[in-house]
Amino acid sequence: MALTKKLQCFWTLGLCLVVSKLSKLVKVPYVPTIYDPGFIHECVDLHNEMRGKVTPSAANMQYLHWDKDLARLAKSWTRKCKYSHNPCTAKRYSCTVDFDFIGENMYLGPINSTPKEVISLWYSERKYYNFENMTCSKICGNYTQVVWANTFKVGCAVSNCPNLLGRSAALFVCNYAPAGNEKNTNPYVKGEFCSMCKAEDCVSNLCLHVTERATQHRAGHLLMLGFILHRLL
Hints:
Blueprint: H1 2-25, H2 37-51, E1 65-66, H3 68-78, E2 103-110, H4 115-123, E3 129-130, E4 135-136, H5 141-146, E5 153-160, H6 162-165, E6 169-177, E7 202-203, E8 206-207, H7 210-232
Parallel strand pairs: 1-5
Antiparallel strand pairs: 2-6, 3-4, 5-6, 7-8
Helix pairs in contact: 2-4
């Protein structure tokens, strides 16, 4: 009996050592989280860079801001490792109570794919889009969502889904609000950049959304109040 217990202990110890050695040999691919500042900035900056250089130029293109709820939505869906759109995007107020419909772009590729590579790939679909007659010669819905003028919030996420490609693979999803890609509608109004917003609300050829502008104004007022109180005390 005692010998059997000793053998079981040795077996368990040996198994633990093997697992420990294997875990060191097998490198787990790094996947950025939705709280990673570098990941967030790259997603937002690349979107805004693309939106600020559209051709023809956009009169009403809004500046995109990161939205934590949209990022959590994207993460919850990528964890399911299904290369298909989230069903909630087809139903009003099903994804979030703040917006009736949510836009969604998806990408599946190498695990080391970066936000810059993914968003640039979506934007490259512009060559298939005819702005004048609002038609696509091939797939271009990812592009039109990236440059949809009325969209002002974005949240992205990536998960490792080896089951989709038979090896480590990045399932990358970005959700947008309000949703774009309305039928028979151009993604933006053609015209001089920022010509449909005030000069003080124009940032890198993009218009600040009214709520974001109000937030910035409140922040400025608080800073000024803090400065005054500091001088008085």
